[in-house]
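COMPLEX REQUEST
Ligand: N-(5'-phosphopyridoxyl)-D-alanine
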Amino acid sequence: MRTVYVNGEYLPEDQGKVSIFDRGFLMADAVYEVTSVLGGKLIDFPGHCARLSRSLSELDMANPVTDDELLGIHRELVARNDIDEGLVYLQVTRGNPGDRDFAFPDPDETPSTIVLFTQDKPGLGGDTAARKGNKVISIDDIRWGRRDIKTVQLLYPSMGKMMAKKAGADDAWLVEDGFVTEGTSNNAYIVKGNKIITRALSRDILHGITRAAVLRFAREAQMDVEERSFTIDEAKQADEAFTTSASAFVMPVVEIDGVQLGDGTAGPLALRLREIYLDESRKAAV
Ligand code: PDD
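STATUS: Structure written out below.
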C-alpha cells in the first residue's frame, strides 16, 4: 500500500482523506504539478516548484509550504514508496471552508489543502513507447482562457483522450482558429527541414517545464528552434512531430488525423532530443 501525504501527515493511502466541502472537489479550485522520478531522483524539480508558486499566486491562493519543505516531502514519498521510476503528483486546493459558496474564503480562516502521492512507473525512462510513437487526432480547443495556470480542470482533456481512444489513436491535439495550441496533457511540436517549431508561450498554453528544458538543450545542440503558431494542416505536412511532458518526456508523434508523418515511424530528431533530455535531466536530478 502506498504512503501518501495529506496536510502535514504521511498516511497509508486508504487513510488519506479530504472533506466533501473542499473547494478542489466542489469547484476545481485547485492547482497541481506532476514531477517525474528517474533513478529515485526528481527531474526538473526547481521548475515545477516555480510554476506551482506562479499558479498559486495567479489565483490568489496561499502556498502552504516552502520550496525546501516541498523538496523534503517529495523525497520522503519517493523513499517511503521505493520509487525508482515514476511520478509524484501534487495538488493544492483553496481548502475546506465548511460549506459551498462561490466567493473565496478568507485564507486566514481556511488553510489550503495539500496532497501528494506517488505513481510507480517502471520503464518510464525507457524507449519502448517512444520508438513506436503516438497517433493523435485533432479536436477543437474549447478550454478556458487561462491555460497557463495548471488547474485541475481536466474534464475536457479527459474527454479528448476518450475521443482519441474511440478513434483508435493515442492522444488529441487541441486546435483553436486552425492553429494547434497543445496536446491534452503535453506541449506540441513539429519539425520541418530540421527546424523545430512550437507555439510561443502565452495564456493559451501551459508553460511546460519539459518544454523549457528541451528547447534549451535543442539550442545548445545548435538545433534550429522557432517559437510560433502552426496550423493543423502544416502539422500534417511536417517531417516529424512530437510532444513533451513530465510524464512522457519527448514523445514522437507518427500520425495526425490518420495522416502518416514521414515514413510513419518515430522521427530521428525527436528520438535524439529525447536522448539528450533524458541524459541531461538525469545528471541534474535531485
Ligand atoms: N501535464 N500542456 C498541458 C495541458 C499539460 O497538462 C502538461 C502536463 C503539459 C506539459 O507540461 P510539463 O512539461 O511541465 O509536464 C503541457 C501533466 C504531465 C499531467 O497533467 O499529467
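REMARKS: The two ends are 25 Å apart (CA to CA). The chain has two domains: 3-120, 128-284.
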